[in-house]
Amino acid sequence: MIARCSPLPCTGTSRSDATAASAAATSARLLRHKTSTEMAEKEKRRSAVLPPPVPEADSRAARSDSDRDFLTQAGVSELLRGAILKMVEARSEDPIGFLADHFCNLASESDPGTGTGDGDEGNNGTVAGRAQEQQRLNRALWHLRLAHHSHRSAFSNNVRVAYDLLNELSPLLRVTDPPTNDTDQVHAASPRDEAGYGGGVRGGLYSQTLQCLCSEGGVPASTSAPLLRRLHCQDHEAVPYDVFRHGVLTCAVFSDFIRQAQRLYADVCCQDEEPVSRALGMAVIGTLKEALETSQGSGGNCAVNANTQTHSCLESNVKAIRYLEASAKLSPDMLAQAMAKAQTRGPGGSMDAKEFENAAAEVFITRVKVLS
Amino acid sequence: MSRFNPTVPVEEYLEDSNVMFYLCDAVTQLLEHKEEYTHFGVVRYFAEYFNSVRNSNHILFREYSYIKATPHNRTSFIRVFWRCYRQIGKSGELLSMQEYRSLLQLLCPDFPMEVVQCAARIVLMDDAIDCLMSFSDFLYAFQLQLFYQEFLDSTLEIYQDLLAGKSPNTVIVPTSTSVEQLPPVAAEEKEEQQQDGVETSTLAQCIEALCDRFKHNYPPRSCMRDILEQNDKVSYYSFLMSLAKHESVNQMIGALPSKADLLIDPEMDQELDKLIAQISVSPGSNSSGSAVGPLKDVQRKASPRRNIHHKRKIEVESDGSTEETDSSEN
């Protein structure tokens, strides 16, 4: 049975693969074309400038060969191919800026200056250490921004890369001497021992990452605060990969959700710019809540027991049915019904954009698991 | 990200931003100067190249064909020209066409005379182009000429056809040789026509038709319509001058601030104040007159030298630090 009949957008795997393939083909073609064009251009310029004491054909061929050798030896084609693929995948609005950032990132990664945990450095807690951390954080955030969370495979890859980047910082915390000025470091030293080298992202860093993701996604701090509280990790805790991924995904989806809620409010209150009547606002939020509850399922039909393998088929069917039901609840006529009902009766007063946003956020946040 | 927007096909996305052009140029430059650039590593080189493209510094001292290759390059060049030489505007000096060309050649060694000539014609209304021009007049005309070059050429052809009495309903091909095919017109009639110009309604019609099929950039149609609606007849250069002065066109191009803000340059002012203080303190000068002479030379020298310093920064050990003046102005 097909588990993919959910009306919610499915993973973008097939789409991103196709795009990647066509991008690879384009880039290969362009690179070949480019190399031959620039060879030709170069040769024209060279032969125009230099007087030809040597028979031109030979020297031209020799020069173009040496150029090609130089390019292959420096690994320029792979470098550019990788850059083009990344750029096409991200489809940023500023491709030039994207490429600049991409190459800067690569340069600083291969630069020995940024370096990994060197036991004798002892610069933890100093300004240099913090700056390095900030740099790592920025690069991790850049990776997380590359693919939208609906492109699951690309997104997961990027999360992995970001996690590894942030993970590298934790070894530095191990080598502090007892008398440090920063209490965080003292906490960090002890529980880390059993976690081992690179045992997880530092809790504080993890929370910071989530905060940046939310604010970059356009969510005001007050709206994202309750969510961040739920996902919060203590600074001394080491965050494993699953938790990291869960947190990042939640924030990404949450930002989308809030943006959509903002748009929804704008649509409901239309051009007047007067605040929406409370009843109407509540009706819309209520419909959304109902739909979400339906998708969660009553749990009665599908009991999870030890024989989950045999039931997995059934489970995915039930899930699919639930999604269908949920989206049916969100269909335009259902919503219109709810809104019409609300206008006749319901609480008075008006609801402004901020309240609406908070209410929508609440609907989302109540479903987020609190980490123990 | 683009989840809620339709996906643009790969080729279109790459074309719109001229990214492949920049990649090609980067590789070409790398090959030409490989001895200089391999010292820092290829990745570092590409990072620097694209950073300079992003910061609009990439066109300095490059050849003219590179400058006019993409709209971004043209905008960057106009902006750099303005930043280098806005002190001239402050001093209120009027320069000739040749002098402006020399200034341009300091930034771009092979900058052609024709472009400067066309810009001068816009300012001077095609009249006595040896006259002196103010910096701001020249700058806006130059911006129009460089950025919308292709459009202006096509419009000129349309205008000349209309002047010669060709019917606007015929298909106007930009590369037409219509001038030779025209029946001989009496000389006095032509002169008179040229002074008055052509009917604005017909010109507007032709320009709309041109824009519908035009592949290059053109000024916003609403601006052109506004200008043409104001009079019954318009001459080519008066039309262009109005375009050059039009604020929306300026904003559309996005290279220069509005005329009121054109001459504001707080850093250079500070530098000059410092220099004046030094000169008046130094034992060499005893009269205010002698202070002005060296000051002017310093004005002229300071900016090109600073720019050469920018270019050399790529070759000198660079840790990606920002440029001296540019970043603080943005």
Automatic annotation (TrEMBL), chain A:
This is Tubulin polyglutamylase complex subunit 1-like C-terminal domain-containing protein. GO terms for molecular function: microtubule binding. Residues 35-46, 57-68 have a biased composition (Basic and acidic residues). Coiled coil: none annotated. It comes from the Eukaryota. Residues 11-28 have a biased composition (Low complexity). Residues 1-68, 176-200 are annotated as: Disordered. Residues 132-298, 318-369 form the Tubulin polyglutamylase complex subunit 1-like C-terminal domain. It comes from Knipowitschia caucasica (Caucasian dwarf goby).
TrEMBL record, chain B:
Residues 317-330 have a biased composition (Acidic residues). CDD domains: DD_C11orf49. One of its GO terms (cellular component) is microtubule. Residues 302-313 have a biased composition (Basic residues). Residues 281-294 have a biased composition (Low complexity). Residues 281-330 are annotated as: Disordered. Its main location: cytoplasm. Keywords: Cytoplasm, Cytoskeleton, Microtubule, Phosphoprotein. It is found in: Cytoplasm, Cytoskeleton, Microtubule organizing center, Centrosome, Centriolar satellite. Regulator of the tubulin polyglutamylase complex (TPGC) that controls cytoskeletal organization, nuclear shape, and cilium disassembly by balancing microtubule and actin assembly. Regulates the assembly and stability of the TPGC and thereby modulates polyglutamylation of the microtubule, which antagonizes MAP4 binding. Belongs to the CSTPP1 family. This is Centriolar satellite-associated tubulin polyglutamylase complex regulator 1. It comes from Knipowitschia caucasica (Caucasian dwarf goby).
